[in-house]
Amino acid sequence: MATIHKWEYLTTPLLIHNTKAILDNFGSDGWELVQVIQGPQGPESLVAYFKRPITEGA
């Protein structure tokens, strides 16, 4: 039988002058980047969507 994963999600602004450090930080905390889209303030504004599995007992 296939395992069904439960996920938690995070949406956060992404500062383009420090993108690598921000993504590395979230990745080290177990977050997987799902998508990056343009934010409401225009092309210099990005919003990142992340997910990570919910661990049982957490």
Descriptive terms for the model:
alpha+beta, 58 residues, 1 helix, 3-stranded antiparallel beta sheet, 3 strands, elongated
Helix-residue proportion:
10-25%
Strand order of the largest sheet: 1-3-2
Regarding quaternary structure, what we see is single chain
N-to-C order of helices and strands: EHEE
What's the gyration radius in Å?
14 Å
Number of domains: 1
User: What portion of the residues fall into strands of 2 or more residues?
Assistant: over 45%
Q: What is the count of DSSP helices, taking H or I runs of 4+ residues? A: 1
Poorly predicted tracts of residues: none
* Helix/strand class: alpha+beta
Specify the overall morphology: elongated
Question: What's the number of extended β-strand segments?
Answer: 3
Distance between the termini: 24 Å
Major beta sheet summary:
3 strands, antiparallel
Report the average pLDDT across residues. Answer: 91
Describe what you observe in this structure.
This protein has a 3-stranded antiparallel beta sheet with strand order 1-3-2, with helices on one face. The chain has 1 helix and 3 strands; from the N terminus they run βαββ. The protein is elongated. The longest helix has 10 residues, at 19-28. With 58 residues, the protein is α+β, with helices and mostly antiparallel strands.
